Amino acid sequence: MNYQEKYENWLKCLPEGDPLKDELLTIKENEAEKEDRFYQNLSFGTAGLRGKVGAGTNRMNFYTVGKASQGIADFIVSHGQEAMDRGVIIAHDPRHFSKEFSELAAGIFAANGIKVYTFPALRPTPELAFMIRKLHTISGINITASHNPREYNGYKAYWDDGCQVSSDIADGMTEKINAVDIWNGVKKLAYEDGIKNGMITVLGEEYDRAYLDRIESLAIHEGDELDLTIPFVYTPLNGCGSIPFREMLKDRGFTNFKIVPEQADPDPDFTTVGYPNPEDPKAFKLSEQYGREFNAELLMATDPDADRFAIEIRDNDGNYIPLNGNQTGYILVNYVLEGHKTAGTLPEKGAIVRSIVTSTLSDIIAKDYNVAMFESLTGFKNICGQIPMLHEKGYTYLFGYEESVGYAACEDIRDKDGISAGMLVAEAAAYYKKQGKTLWDVLQDIYAKYGFFAEDEPNIILEGIPGAERIQRMMKWFRENLPETVAGSNVSKVIDYINGYETIPPQNALRLFLDNGSWFAIRPSGTEPKIKFYFYSDQDSREKALAVNKAIKDEILGLINSVD
Fold first, then answer.
1. CA–CA separation, 13 vs 444, rounded Å?
2. N or C: which end of the chain has fewer CB within 10 A?
3. Mean pLDDT in the chain?
4. Separation CA 344–CA 329 (nearest Å)
5. In a domain, 30, yes or no
6. Four-CA torsion 432, 437, 441, 445, nearest 10 degrees
């Protein structure tokens, strides 16, 4: 069916009085809107589902969530009774309809004879990932759109290793989902009835405690080694992080922190934030205000599902400086390795994993500590997916991260975790303060010792059908017109990951290396309507690195933007 036929079919099938039907009637004369809502089914992949909330096959709503849940239920049932008995754990964030979608999904799994575990309220994505392994469930589902704008919601699917689903699992789920009749093929059970008949179990507070205990076990330095009076500000950006982050700080003994009051409680509209992405310095506006009042040395933020984490630190002039994900990664990698070495707990065969688009400065730090660095595709299903291989080769996993403010410090939490990252950054700040240093001093020391890198990760947002098509044209054009020189430097190496590269599986990404110590990468986002760029330069001063990086960025973005 074309988009018009799908639109008319939904109008016919939706019951009278359903708000989605009324919503569709309001766009009856808007062809562009109808096409955007119905030109495709909201695609399920290794990132699950993600889209705007609303009526249509290309939207998050009770019918598309129901279809996905039934398909995944069918996939689990196909694995037999043991898988059904192991069950599924479901969590949700504070967004519009997250609670309702999670209860719908729980009822569908229960109606299919699959055991379900849920939380009494919203919980961080990393806690869900931890509980999959702790409870030995076959799968996990989180209703969240992470850091996307408020109009979005999403459906993250996990498998029994605690990672988001791999390509082969996603393909199997997709096949089952596509076979579900969205109107008549979904088995349903009311959420409360599932609790009454024992198919749905609501987890108690002891499970939250187990998650926090595991995070706090990552501590490297404690007690008198830390200045626990260091002042800092934290914001959960109206998301899931507020309670666990606060409890973690109290457990660790920090006594001088403030949580941004306007952003402490859940708010699906993110009223004081707008775009709730801690990567964006604008998300720190209120934190900076309270930071100045509080004389805070450090500002910390997690996104709405508390898996992403970002910071701002004070420079020597007292200004708050936002750090990109690479820079925070430098501090964390350096602290974890230095800390373990100082504490005498650095393993003989330690390993760190970073994504292919993350700065290589951390490779130099790792080498200095005789720690191996491994590359993976973007996404923590790939980063944490390396852990079994590392174990087989006798390595001890120490840390994993990528430039998009995601950090995985614990091998039992196989996803990025803003709570554990926040604990380690707070601990590092307190540890260095005891030595008379700030995190700004530490970052400058890292550059001076390991290389004056510059980092820049711009992106171009292109929404809707025209945007998706233009992104495809951009990637196609660039592959067909690879530059031989960029900003006066020769291209010395090109890696195209479209068909895979060495041990790296296929991904639509390009990476170009220049003969002046710079490299850059290009790839479309897998979860957002944007094409992403990554620029890195290593020069003999930070100022020179920034200038070289800017020249490369300006030339490449100019080329890309010329593609209609």
1. 62
2. C
3. 96
4. 22
5. no
6. -70
Query: Do 463 and 383 share a structural domain?
Result: no
CA angle, corner 250, sides to 248 and 251, nearest 5?
A: 65
The predicted-structure confidence for 510-561, as pLDDT tens digits, reads as follows: 999 999 999 999 999 877 889 999 999 999 999 999 999 999 999 999 999 9
What pTM did the predictor assign? 0.95
- Kindly state whether residue 414 falls inside one of the protein's structural domains: yes
What torsion, rounded to 10 degrees, do the Cα atoms 239, 308, 295, 322 define? -130
Has 146 been annotated as catalytic?
yes
Q: Identify the CATH number of the domain in which residue 192 sits.
A: 3.40.120.10
- Amino acid of residue 19: P
The dihedral region occupied by 105, where left means phi > 0, alpha psi between -120 and 50, and beta the remainder, is: alpha
Residues 443 and 469 in one domain: no
Enclosing domain of residue 190: 40-203
Same domain? 154 vs 191? yes
Q: Are 52 and 190 in the same domain?
A: yes
Residues 132 and 72 in one domain: yes
**What's the start-to-end Cα distance of the chain, in Å?**
29
| Mean pLDDT, rounded, for 17-25 | 95
78 — pLDDT class (breaks 50, 70, 90)? very high
287 plus 186 within the same structural domain: no
Would you state the pLDDT for residue 465? 85
For residue 53, list its beta bridge partners.
60
Q: Out of 146, 287, 404, 537, which one is annotated catalytic?
A: 146
Q: Is 103 helix (H, G, I), strand (E, B) or coil?
A: helix
4 located within any domain: no
pLDDT tens readout for residues 169-208 = 999 999 999 999 999 999 999 999 999 999 999 999 999 9
Burial of 399 (0-12, 13-18, 19+ CB in 10 A): buried
Domain count, the chain: 3
DSSP letter string over 340-370?
HHHHT---TTEEEEEETTS-THHHHHHHHTT
437 and 343 fall within a common domain: yes
pLDDT in tens, 135-181: 999 999 999 999 999 999 999 999 999 999 998 999 999 999 999 99
User: 116-118 and 139-143: which strand pairing?
Assistant: unpaired
Residue 210 included in any domain: no
Identify whether residues 151 and 287 lie together within a single domain.
Answer: no
The whole-number pLDDT of residue 529 equals 87
Residues 378 and 361: their CA atoms lie apart, in Å, by 17
> 426, 450, 474: which is the final residue of a domain?
450
Separation of alpha carbons 457 and 473, rounded Å: 21
